[in-house]
Amino acid sequence: MGQSMSSIAPECNESKKAYDNCFSQWYEKFLKGESLENECKDLFDTYKTCVQSAMLKNHNVHKNLEDAREQAPFENGGKHRETD
């Protein structure tokens, strides 16, 4: 397997790496029809909690997300919405 990307929150890199490794192994089993159950749910939940916590600590992330939601470029053909 190739290298995985770093987390958006550096403090979550280890939990992301653990989840990515688990998912890669599970996906191979899934493709072979050997597993349908999400075997990595607990690791994903740990990673998600870490990212959410990091976002709460970093108020700039929230502002950037809100700005992006207001712009909604994906809903407007990739273009920023016109502001009044």
TrEMBL record:
Name used for this protein in its record: Mdm35 protein
One Pfam family here: UPF0203
Keywords associated with the record: Disulfide bond
Signal peptide residue numbers: none
Gene Ontology annotations of biological process type: phospholipid translocation
GO CC terms: cytosol; mitochondrial intermembrane space; nucleus
InterPro entries according to UniProt: MDM35_apoptosis (IPR007918)
